[in-house]
Amino acid sequence: MTSSFNVHDAAGYEQLMGRWSQKLALQFIDFAGLADGEKILDVGCGTGSLTFALARNANLSEIAAIDFSEVFVAEANRRNKDPRIHIQQADACALPFKDAAFDRALALLVLHFVPETAKAVAEMRRVVRPGGVVAATVWDHLGGMPGMRMMIDTVAALSDSGRQLRSRYCFQPMMQPGELKQTFVEQGLVEVTETELMIRMDYRDFDDYWAPIAAGEGPLGKYVAALDKAGRARTDAAVRDAYEAGRPDGPRSFANVAWACRGQVA
Known about the structure:
InterPro entries: Methyltransf_11, SAM-dependent_MTases_sf
Strand order of the largest sheet: 3-2-1-4-5-7-6
CATH class: Alpha Beta
Helix content: 40-55%
Keywords: Methyltransferase, Transferase
Protein name: Methyltransferase domain-containing protein
CATH superfamily: Vaccinia Virus protein VP39
Number of domains: 1
GO molecular function: S-adenosylmethionine-dependent methyltransferase activity
Domain Methyltransferase type: 41-135
């Protein structure tokens, strides 16, 4: 198993996270760096948030993108109209590319879902040329995603299974301060730096927030889908109450922070 992220429907993922990863991709590109003529690898491309942003932000010679999910690969290929972009199904821990094939290897919101994270970072380093860059970013689930913690803390107050979900969610790999940086250093990257990136998630109303989770998308959706009828009704009502916070349903906005790390191949 090379990914712990569950996906059923590409459109559901877009509503859950894709629209926000598109915003984060722009800040991540600024942090990771980019130059005309380069060959870039996008590891864990999803539906293409970073892939297509890369194509728009520099005159690159080639963009290779891989993802473990066939659903994501099919959707990204459906969207692709750029001959420089090549998307395929592959394992982040066994990248199907030659050594030193790229100028940069980037991973947007991926490494915390890869059980063998160090192996994935080592593979990213392997396929990047000496002097090239490896960079990654992951959400700070513990302290940087209040919109999602709102749901997590609500279900934790309802049941033991909710408390177990919170423990898993808040302490996924690579999400603690310095954890990405330590892994990059241990895998032989040099001049390693870590920073925080922030965007805002803006929702039209509760349904805009809750629909993809209720449909079973992502780790939170997987939890909701496993509830019995009574548990589901109780959870729906409690999370709605948390979202509305005593005011009429409508727009809500949450700041969200991601850790980002960049290193150079020696």
